[in-house]
Amino acid sequence: MERILVIGxxxxxxxxxxxxxxxxHGNENVFATDIKQPPADILESGPFHVLDVLxxxxxxxxxxxxxxxxVYNLAAVLSGNAEKIPMQAWEINMKALMNTxxxxxxxxxxxLFWPSSIAVFGPTTPRFNTPQLTVMEPNTVYGISKLAGExxxxxxxxxxxxxxxxxxYPGLISYKTEAGGxxxxxxxxxxxxxxxxxxxxxxLREDSALPMMFMDDAIAATIKLMNANSSKFSLRSSYNVGGxxxxxxxxxxxxxKHIPExxxxxxxxxxQAIADSWPASIDDQVARKDWGLSDKFNLDSMTELMLTxxxxxxx
Length: 315
Ligand code: AKB
Known about the structure:
The protein is of the alpha/beta class. It has two domains: about 5-170 and about 215-240, Rossmann fold (3-Layer(aba) Sandwich); about 175-210 and about 245-280 and about 295-315, UDP-galactose 4-epimerase, domain 1 (Alpha-Beta Complex), CATH 3.90.25. The chain is built from twelve helices and 14 strands. It has helices at about 15-25, 40-45, 55-65, 80-85, 85-105, 140-160, 185-195, 215-225, 250-255, 270-275, 285-290, 300-315; strands at about 5, 30-35, 50, 70-75, 110-115, 115, 165, 165-170, 170-175, 200, 210-215, 240, 245, 265. A six-stranded parallel sheet has the order 3-2-1-4-5-7, sandwiched between helices. Helix 1 links the parallel strand 1 (about 5) and strand 2. Helix 7 (about 185-195) packs parallel to helix 9 (about 250-255) and helix 7 (about 185-195) crosses helix 12. It is globular and about 55 Å long. It starts with a strand and ends with a helix. The model has no long low-confidence stretch (mean pLDDT about 100). 2-amino-3-ketobutyric acid binds next to loops.
């Protein structure tokens, strides 16, 4: 029986992944932790503890006490916020990862999921259909920390036999918990603003194409990777996961099909340069072949669901 620690259960991914893991492994076996208060459904459905991943002694004590066997480490400062506090972001992102890698050496928590990102790519990477193996020269603090993290994960797997597993998430779109501080966040905010005010001022240009994925597909991919037989893995760093590719103009057009009066304006800020350095679309054939990555949602089906669910929530 697995005993699972989720670090960052109150965030955009954690608030959904924790509940999905509890359905599979049993509520009592999934330990949700964060330094922030989680949503009510996480508090009510199973154990929650305040835990700071940056405090190694407490982390180790926690894992031993609760006999943890698997860790999902979702703690990170995202791309936009990281540019405002480069040294702190580097310190937090790297220490959070290194503590869970060391935890895997020092305890029974030998299996670790850690998200990487399309931010590992940079302006010299081929922009369209970016392959798994290619030029990687990220020029953001967040991207540099994610690329370094991938290298460390592979190193711990090869040197110490830690079962490190990772995907390079594209921008993630969800209605439950809003993201914070990312460059792809516009694609969540736009739906909330469409319902609240019927207009949105976008911080990226209308033609900024980026890879994106609906949260249900991202959660399914994460669980599939963690359950896959590792003998089929052709790499132990991080897998490309593509999802879909669209621009702000495309999302606005998809929203207008449901809210014809919706209006979008554009006022690019510092995040435009980050978006310009990232791929527009991703080739994820290796993940499809190695562990059966698949996705269900496209821009139209996602838009319909986002608008329905956000209307129910704030409507
Ligand atoms: C961000 O925009 O920083 C994240 C990411 C693509 O990793 N959503």
